[in-house]
Design a protein that fits this description.
Elements (H helix, E strand, L loop, with lengths): L13 H21 L6 H12 L13 H4 L8 H19 L1 H5 L3 E6 L2 E7 L13 H15 L9 E6 L13 H18 L7 E5 L12 H7 L1 E7 L5
Parallel strand pairs: 3-4
Antiparallel strand pairs: 1-2, 2-5, 3-5
Helix pairs in contact: 6-7
């Protein structure tokens, strides 16, 4: 007598565990891609340890309500929001000042201090002078004042730093480059105030020729070292 064929067994549910792990790992991957320069590494390590079940990896768990208790979600942790805001402001500044950037009148960069708008002194001051050439610089200063007064920057503070080259101050006019660099920074602040910025949100610094961006070997390099930096400060530099 022929044996009866056994019916096909029902598929197991073990694949659901693997699928769930894959989806979770993909979520963490895209969170890191979202703003890799601002991700809180300690939190991500703790989250990763929680996913893998490592009891030594940290105390943050993925249990319901934990992140809500902290007042955050994965997509809106404080460091990510701050980085996103400064990144948006940098893109906006580059867009607004494109004409001035193309003519090397100003430069827009970012560093550990925050967003830096550099006024190249050749376009704003006569040699050995701290008096702004207002007729030539009025439109640019007005655009800067309007940008710094934007509501998106309402919680930020600003610093204006004056810089000279190694031979900027001439005998008889200034005691040294320190006085000239500070005077240029103050002059920029006074003119921005005339265009509506809040003076109490600013601080002033004069660095003379101690922080060049290039060497002082050529006339072109010295010209770029003679500058006034307007900085939208990162929180760590308030």
């Amino acid at each position: 007598m022929a044996r009866k064929k056994k019916g096909a067994s029902a598929p197991g549910s073990g694949w659901l565990t693997t699928y769930g792990d894959m989806v979770t790992l993909m979520l963490c991957f895209f969170v890191m891609l979202y703003e890799p320069s601002e991700v809180d590494i300690t939190r991500l390590q703790a989250l990763s340890a929680s996913i893998s079940g490592d009891p030594t990896g940290g105390s943050i768990s993925l249990s319901a309500g934990k992140l809500a208790d902290l007042g955050n979600t994965i997509s809106s942790m404080p460091s990510m929001e701050k980085g996103k805001m400064l990144g948006t402001a940098l893109k906006k500044a580059v867009s607004i000042f494109t004409p001035e950037i193309k003519t090397t009148k100003i430069a827009v960069t970012s560093d550990e201090r925050g967003i830096v708008i550099s006024l190249i002194a050749e376009s704003f001051f006569a040699r050995n002078s701290a008096e702004l050439n207002i007729e030539e610089s009025r439109e640019t200063l007005l655009k800067i004042a309007q940008f710094l007064s934007d509501k998106e920057l309402a919680a930020r503070r600003f610093r204006i730093e004056g810089h000279t080259d190694s031979s900027d101050a001439l005998a008889g006019k200034w005691t040294s480059n320190w006085e000239l660099s500070a005077a240029r920074a103050i002059s920029v602040l006074h003119n921005l105030t005339d265009f509506g910025v809040q003076e109490d949100k600013f601080s002033i610094a004069g660095y003379a020729d101690t922080r060049p961006v290039y060497s002082n070997e050529t006339a072109e390099e010295r010209a770029y070292n003679r500058r006034v930096d307007i900085i939208i400060l990162d929180d760590a530099h308030f």
